[in-house]
Design brief:
alpha+beta; Gyrase A, domain 2; 43% helix; binds flavin-adenine dinucleotide
Amino acid sequence: MFITKPSYTILHELDRQSLPVRIEYSGRICYKSEDRIDETSAIPFVRKMADYGHNSVLEMGVITFRLSGLSSEQVTAFYRCQPKYLNIEIEADNTLLITGSIRGYREMFVNHKQNDVTLALTNFLGNRHPYFFETVCRPEQVDAPKNIVVEKIELEQIEQFEGDRLALHRYLGVRFIVNRAVTHELVRHRPCAFLQESQRYCRYSADKFGNEVTFIQPLFYQEDSTEFKLWKQAMEATEKIYLELLETSSPQAARTVLPNACKTEIIVYTNLAEWRHILALRTPKNADPSMREVMIPLQQELQGLYPAIF
Ligand SMILES: Cc1cc2nc3c(=O)[nH]c(=O)nc-3n(C[C@H](O)[C@H](O)[C@H](O)COP(=O)(O)OP(=O)(O)OC[C@H]3O[C@@H](n4cnc5c(N)ncnc54)[C@H](O)[C@@H]3O)c2cc1C
């Protein structure tokens, strides 16, 4: 068995990559197959995710658009269709600022009544990133209304937004290495997108996991204490049984003996407004100490990056 400390990484740099690269990096966390990433792997990977309908992976690619030149009727028709999971703001007279994930845009097209705005967005995105849309439409055949100008907003421009606009449209991913109890709490934050290492899929007896189970060091016990020794004894016994079960059964069956202390990786992806909400709940004294262990330093780092928001 291996014991490690919890940690987190803000995925700034990932946001500067293309949509397929971002989505592949995040998606491979589930299978711990990051070793398969190379210069050509992203598009086949995301195409497979779209084909399989592994839609939550497509939530990890977020993109912002400004739509201008619209008529009031076109704005109204778009609002009436009420696409879920898109952040929509009227920036100025008949100019819309829209932020959403590839999943959000795909489902806007599939599930909602079409109107000029949904057609303009699908045409723009689908022609640039056909692999996301080819299972639901032929984007070149989706007519874009001529009066609507669709402009993709780059990250550098979003970073220049202020106040609520920055909080709403700036999405940020954080990769946590924590125990399973902490991720169970994290996934209660509903507006976020999550991807997590799969214990159903990962076989910790394999070479790539060092043939062992990794546990997160509990902050509750000093390393030389009786309690820590008891805790370690319990983890060793559990690992032994888990590895024995794997000899005759699948990871999803064997994992049923694994405890909360198991190390897991998760990417939490959401906008700054939701990060602010999460930190307000997860840093005070009444929050879980194991959660505070990663959230307090994360809050400090975010305060440095976005002082007006945090
Ligand atoms: C100290 C602490 C102790 C806790 N103890 C327990 C416990 O004992 N048992 C337990 O089950 N949970 C517990 N929780 C989890 C808690 O109940 C929430 O599920 C979790 O904190 C997510 O917070 P949230 O619901 O405010 O926000 P999020 O899920 O992060 O949602 C953010 C915002 O989205 C909006 N929103 C999202 N979904 C909806 C919706 N369906 N309807 C309306 N508005 C929505 C709300 O405006 C909300 O403020 C605890 C949390 C903390 C911090």
